[in-house]
Amino acid sequence: MRFYLRKKRQPPAVIIVALIDVLIVVLIFLMVTTTFKKAQPALKLALPESSQATKSGVSENPPLVVIIEEDGNLRLGPEAKPVTVDRLKSELLAEIGKNPQLKLTLNADKKAPFGQIVKVMDAAKEAKIKTISAFTKQSGQP
Q1: Is the pTM here over 0.90, yes or no?
Q2: Buried b / exposed e across 54-74, counting CB within 10 Å, b at 16+?
Q3: Euclidean distance between CA atoms 84 and 92, whole angstroms
Q4: The CATH number of 49-138 is which of 3.90.1150.10, 2.40.30.20, 3.30.420.270, 3.40.605.10?
């Protein structure tokens, strides 16, 4: 009779390197697929509602934005730098010199003084800006 000698089994081992590789792949997958929240603007404005509000297209040339705050202060451009009405006129003239097809967008708080809105529109007409629009939000949106 022949007896087989049992070989000693090694206890199961966990391969840490493989686990780390899998965890890194999962982490990268989560980072790539996660949607990031848009940064909130520094100025909180309560926009007026409109049933005809639309979102502007991404392919368009971005308009020059004039922000009119609740207390009537004016801010210009993506940096939202504070300006006066007289300074706004000169800035608009300079911008229209660079881009004759410039579009102006008003981003006014619904409690902003209407006189300021009219002054901004007058400055835009003096600068010969043809397209003036206003930011609104769709009815029922927060």
Answers
A1: no
A2: eeeeeeeeebbbbbbbeebeb
A3: 12
A4: 3.30.420.270
Q: Torsions phi, psi of 16, nearest 5?
A: -65, -40
Distance CA 64, CA 85 (A): 15
* 28 vs 36: CA distance, rounded Å: 15
Give residue-wise pLDDT tens across range 67-124: 888 888 898 888 888 898 889 889 888 888 888 888 888 888 888 888 888 898 898 8
User: Residue 134 to residues 63, 76, 95: CA-CA distances in angstroms?
Assistant: 11, 14, 19
Sort strands 103-108 and 64-68 into parallel, antiparallel or unpaired.
Answer: parallel
Report the C-alpha gap between 76 and 91 in whole angstroms.
9
